[in-house]
Amino acid sequence: MQTLREIHSRQRRALYPLLALFVLGWGFTEWKTVFAGLILGSLFGLYNFWLLVRRSERFNLSIENGKRSVSLGTALRFASGIAAAAIATSMPEQFDLIGTVSGFGLPYVILLVDRIIYHVRHEQGR
């Protein structure tokens, strides 16, 4: 079984080439706002997943030490989603809102695909 940190590392390795493609799309196409929105949303989505990993590790550590854990993890993830949407709506000439929302969900789509591939490979290995 993989740890959440290993999953996050695999997700980053999958998302960085996509971000590079988005940068190329931003630089060489006329759809600059769409690609800028995809970049913005993907970065905020990756930040959200990193927050989840960090909070999960802190929670596990506090359980091991027998302490109670107080966290604002969900509130911070909601706030970062709102911040990404606020940036996109406040600067519509720079960022496309639909691209931003799509980019925000992209790390979770990559996570889903990675988990499916992981489980299919491990089922074949049995």
TrEMBL record:
Lineage: Bacteria, Bacillati, Bacillota, Bacilli, Bacillales
Entry's localization field: Cell membrane
Transmembrane segments: 12-28, 34-53, 74-91, 97-118
Organism, as annotated: Sporosarcina siberiensis
Annotated signal sequence range: none
Superkingdom as given in the UniProt entry: Bacteria
Membrane-topology descriptor: Multi-pass membrane protein
The keyword Membrane is assigned to this record: yes
InterPro entries referenced in this protein's UniProt entry, alphabetically: ATP_synth_I (IPR005598), ATP_synth_I_Bacilli (IPR039072)
Entry keywords, A to Z: Cell membrane, Membrane, Transmembrane, Transmembrane helix
Name of the protein in its database record: ATP synthase subunit I
